[in-house]
Amino acid sequence: MFFEIYSLDVSRKWQMLFQDPGTPLMEGIVDFHHDIMFIIIFIVVAVLFMITVIVHNFTQTENNETKAVMRGSHHTVLEIVWTIIPSIILLAIAVPSFALLYSIDELISPSITLKVVGHQWYWTYEYSDYSIDYSHINLESYMIGEEDLKPGYFRLLETTARVVLPTKVHIRVLITSADVLHCWAVPSLGIKTDACPGRLNQLALFIKREGIYYGQCSEICGVNHGFMPIVVEAVSLTKYSQWFSNHLDKSINFNW
Q: 24-105 has which fold?
């Protein structure tokens, strides 16, 4: 194998939380999730406390004063409070969520462009940057069957060709489909973009650390939908340049 295995960003047995983030976008998603969970837990505890107090105090066996309160039509101050507080909470959630959404669409002058095409039922990848004499690198990525798995490989997740990308470089990914709807998704990178026939979707990618990131097609695309894995191998820029040069030479020789 050309590269040593740095880390394995893949779901594990009984996993409850996110995979380790490999991009600033995924870090933002994880942080936003944790902040929202804190607010949700606080709301759930507060509501359960109020329900418990109400059930305990407002029963048929209580005194006349309690019954009189229960017969009241409304409480102006209370209604104002329980309208304003949820509005403030929603605003507190909306501001960081909008910032995160806009950051997803932000595209900084990319140094590399990767073209991804979904097929029934495999992926093809094209590297056309810095091509010579109209040559470029084309990869067809199929799932490796169980009988061909090597020790340490993951069942239903390994592919015949990995997407090799450099770290700490702004990358543009263009995604489309040749037949039906597919979805190119890699959880650790915070990527989940539809591949639509006749349409080109674009996403920005900036991988912070080296590693091997696993994903799958996340749009039901036919009988073999569950057999379209994705493997992204992030390496240093030096190793990526070496890999690119080797594959480009092979492509040129093949074209000749």
A: Helix Hairpins (1.10.287)
